[in-house]
Structures are given as structure tokens and as C-alpha cells.
Amino acid sequence: MIRKLLISSLTLANSSLLILMLLMGSQNLNERHSLNLGITSTESLPSGFLIGISIVLGSLSGGMTTLFIMPSQKNNF
Question: In whole angstroms, what is the distance from residue 18 CA to residue 21 CA?
């Protein structure tokens, strides 16, 4: 249980730091694109921000998937 808590806290901390760096780095980008989501489209966002957010979400989902794959260890006394 402690191992899973440690992995989840490290994953959340790393993802939040990546998002913070991404937000600080994408302030002055001029080339903007919007994503077509089928029904609607997003606001015009810098292309570096769109790529960065996908990397951060992939890192977050990969770290959280590890928690579900890890076997739970039970103490048998």
C-alpha cells in the first residue's frame, strides 16, 4: 500500500511540474491551431502547448496505470 501511495504521489508531482513548465514556456508562441473534436473545436492554442499537454497526459496515465497493474501485497501473520 505504501509503495502504491509513493508511486501515485511521484506521478502526480512529476505531472504537475511538467504542466507548470509547459504553461510558463508557452506564453509567447505566435502560431496557434485549434483541434477539431468532431462535434466542436477547441480554442486556438499554440501547437507546442497541444503537444506538451498530450505528453503530460500520457505520462500521467502511464503512471496511474502502473498502480492498477501492480499486485497488492497482503501481510500474512
Answer: 5
Compute the distance between CA of residue 8 and CA of residue 40 in angstroms, rounded to an integer. 33
pTM: 0.70
Summarised one tens digit per residue, pLDDT across range 1-32 is: 788 888 889 999 999 999 898 888 777 777 78
If 0-12 CB within 10 Å is exposed, 13-18 middle and 19+ buried, where does residue 38 land? exposed
- Mean pLDDT of all residues in 43-52: 82
Question: Can you tell me which residue has the cell 504521489?
Answer: 9
For cell 505566435, name the residue: 30
DSSP per residue over 10-30, as a string?
HHHHHHHHHHHHHHHHTSS--
Is residue 29 within 8 Å of residue 45, measured between CB atoms? no
